[in-house]
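Record type: monomer structure entry
Structure origin: computed from sequence
Chain ID: A
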Amino acid sequence: MDNITKTREFIDPTLCIMEWRICSAQGASEIIFYRDEDSGTYARMFRFPVGFGEGVPYKEGEVGFSHDEFDEIVYIVSGGLINRRLGYRYQPGTVAVFPKGTSHGPFLTPFGILTLEFRHYCKKNKTSDITKTPEFIDPNSKFQWVSCPPQGASEMIFYRDDDLGTHARLVRLPVGFGEGVPYKEGEGGFSHDEFDEIVYIVSGGLINRRLGYRYQPGTVAVFPKGTSHGPFEAPFGALTVEFRHYKKNNKKF
């Protein structure tokens, strides 16, 4: 099998060769660790500093962010957000989907924040909405877990682009997943021929039974389509956030 991972698959993006880049005048910074150069779609870690937005008076009609070219999917890893316009408070483990053109915020971050974000360039028309209801939700309160491959796993899809198939999901592996399964020489665990896959480990952990590497929460992997990776076991189970980007009709929208 030619296209199979041989080096470490998951890395801590904050401790590797990638560097934080300042991306706003307010002190926010980002690490972009995946980009589809054809469509523009990319994934990043994003952080606001402690005290961001504090003491800034809210002005009637003010909004923080609006993106006219892409849908934005945001998962809060640590810290938290307060919407200064609406008063809602968002904790780690909550997720938001902002269709392109949707104005959201402005925010403040008393304890700073670290988020995982997917910015997906898509064909659909932009909206002209402004958020009025809670922007970030506990996905367990709205979406259902359903069984998915491999056996014993379950998924919760909370975003999908119906035109391309690109989607974002949570995946849950049970305690003891893959333990006691003998490894066969040349065996690969997973391979996807239609999409690139970005995987972030939220909790638990994974062990690659072929390579012996151990992956902890806070690490991320990018598997280009057709790349065989794994097989894995999860002694303590695992919860991951995953973005599957279909690169059909490769062009900038």
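Annotation 1: The two ends are 35 Å apart (CA to CA).
Annotation 2: The first strand starts at residue 21 and ends at 22.
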